[in-house]
Amino acid sequence: MPLVGLISFILVTSLFYYGQVAVEHWQPSLNLRTTKLAVPAKFDIRVIWQFMRHWPAQPWQPLLVSGLAVTLLIYPRLLLRAITVLVSLGFVLVLSEYWDKLLLAFHRQPFAQSDPLFQTDIGFYIFTLPLLELLQFWLLGLAVLTSLAVSLVYLLSADSLSQGYFPGFSPPQARHLSQLGGWLMLMIGLSYWLDRYMLLYSSQGASYGASYTNVAVELPAAISLSLAAMPLAVWLLIKGISNGRWSRWKGQRQEKPVRKIGEVQVFGRPIYGTNYRPNSETDRGIDYGIDYGIDHRTDHRPRRRPAHRSPLLLSLSFYGLAMLLLNFGLPAITQRLVVQPNELGLEQPYIRRTIAWTRRGFKLDEIDVQTFDPNTNLTAADREANNLTLENIRLWDKNPLLVTNRQLQRIRLYYEFPDADIDRYTLPTEDGRTAQQQVLIAARELDYKAVPAAAQTWVNQHLVYTHGYGFTLSPVNTVAEGGLPDYFVRGIESTAVDPRVQSTIPIGKPRIYYGELSDTYVMTQTRVQELDYPSGDENIYNTYGGWGGVHIGNFGQRLLFAKHLRDWQMLFTDDFTPQTRLLFRRNISERVQTIAPFLRYDSNPYLVVVDTGNKEWERGYREPETMDGINPEPDESHLYWIIDAYTTSNRYPYSDPLEQDFNYIRNSVKVVVDAYHGAVNFYVADAQDPIIQAWSELFPGMFQPLEQMPPALQRHIRYPEDFSRVQSNQLMTYHMTDPIVFYNREDQWRAPNEIYGSEQQLVEPYYLIMKLPIGNTEEFILLRPFTPAQRNNLIAWLAARSDGDQYGRMLLYVFPKQELVFGPEQIEARINQDPIISERISLWNRQGSRAAQGNLLVIPVDQSLLYVEPLYLIAEQNQLPTLVRVIVAYGNRIVMAETLDQALDAIFTAEPTTAEPIIRTTDPEIPID
Amino acid sequence: MLKGYGVEATLMWISKQFDRKGITILRWIGISLGVLLLLDLLTFLLAEGLWFQAVSYGDVFATRLLSQGLIGLGVFAVSLGCLWLNLTIAEQRMWTHPEPGAERMMLPGHLRLKYLCRSSD
Question: Is residue B37 situated within a structural domain?
Answer without folding.
Answer: yes
